[in-house]
Design goal:
By secondary structure, this protein is of the alpha/beta class. It is about 35% helix and about 25% strand. The chain has a single domain, classed as Protocatechuate 4,5-dioxygenase, Chain B (3-Layer(aba) Sandwich). The strands form 2 sheets. Strands 2, 3, 4, 7, 8, 9, 10, 11 and 12 form a 9-stranded mixed β-sheet that branches.
């Protein structure tokens, strides 16, 4: 087993100094207006730099206030941006580190899931991947102690992802998080149109309506929609903005949405 996977994007996507990072995340969470159903089972959360998507991410994590003492395990899926990947890759590390400390991995469970043909244990997809890492400081401040099951997601069928989610579904102690931004590098108006259509599809539970233009984490999102329908969950849109609303210009924006399933 590998030891600790160190933080790869601290100081770039979010502050590297522990005190500054904690204060930054706490401020995002405190400013988030309560929305959505209490006690969500699953969330979809953006993963850009905090200056861009932190306010939107906070609207998702603020829904966990009543679950702070109940959630003991987080199953986290994010797209593999840097390593081409067939299926899903679980991390072989013992823990993931951020400036706020280490998050232990549920390695025995990861090893069990890696027996599925679509899952492998591999360090490479996780080594520099930001989509999973940027969620951790929010989880560390929103929850108490928890185990992590992180999966980098490549090309996979909806059912391949849904099978992993169903296997790890658990009870009220388990939270499922899908890390995904929405449309990329369109003008502001085009992004709004695309992201509105994507949000309609997510809320309606229509995985086949999501394509390459919809979201970078579309593979995991589609898998969640399949699993959520099996379990009778309903989705609520919590927030929908883009970088033109937060910290960027209107010419080439990235879309961000926050969604809760309960």
């Amino acid at each position: 087993m590998l030891d600790t996977r160190p933080a790869a994007v601290a100081g770039a996507f979010y502050p590297a100094e522990p005190g500054v990072l904690a204060a930054t995340v706490d401020a995002f969470l405190a400013a988030a207006e309560p929305r959505g159903s209490a006690s969500p089972k699953a969330l979809i959360v953006p993963h850009a730099g905090y200056v861009y998507s932190g306010t939107v991410a906070a609207t998702a994590y603020a829904t966990l206030r009543d679950q702070r003492d109940r959630i003991e395990r987080v199953v986290l899926f994010g797209p593999s941006h840097r390593v081409a990947l067939a299926g899903l890759a679980a991390s072989p590390a013992r823990a993931f580190a951020t400036p706020l400390g280490e998050v232990p991995l549920a390695f025995d469970e990861l090893r069990r899931v890696a027996q599925l043909p679509q899952v492998q244990l591999s360090e490479a997809p996780h080594e520099l991947e930001h989509s999973l890492e940027v969620q951790l400081p929010f989880l560390q401040r929103a929850l108490r102690e928890f185990d992590l099951l992180p999966f980098a997601v490549g090309e996979a069928r909806d059912e391949d992802v849904a099978e992993v989610i169903d296997l790890l579904w658990g009870g009220e102690e388990t939270l499922i998080v899908i890390s995904s931004d929405l449309s990329h590098y369109h003008d502001y108006r085009t992004a709004q149109e695309l992201d509105t259509a994507t949000s309609r599809a997510i809320v309606a539970g229509e995985p086949h309506a999501l394509d390459f233009e919809s979201a970078c984490g579309r593979v995991a999102v589609r898998g969640l929609l399949v699993s959520a329908r099996r379990h009778g969950l309903r989705c609520q849109l919590l927030d929908l903005r883009n970088s033109g609303d937060t910290a960027g210009g209107p010419d080439r924006v990235v879309g961000y949405g926050a969604y809760a399933f309960a």
